[in-house]
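Hi support team,

I submitted a single chain yesterday and got back a structure, but I'm not sure I'm reading the token output correctly. Could someone confirm the output below corresponds to the sequence I sent? I've pasted both exactly as they appear in my results page.

Thanks,
R.
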Amino acid sequence: MDPIHEFEQLSAGLADIAVLLFQYKQDLVKQNFTEEQAFILVREYQMLLFNQKK
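Hi R., thanks for writing in. Yes, this is the structure output for that exact sequence:
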């Protein structure tokens, strides 16, 4: 596969995930989590998605 095409696909996937994470954070805030709590939960979810350690 063309490296430029692979990069474009990766960029599109990351953009989709960014929207998902933003909406998740907004939903947490609507459920009365503080901004800081919502941020921490979204960060932990992101780490799970990308299999990163703290």
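A quick pointer for reading it: The chain has a mean pLDDT of 92. Let us know if anything else looks off.

Best,
Support desk
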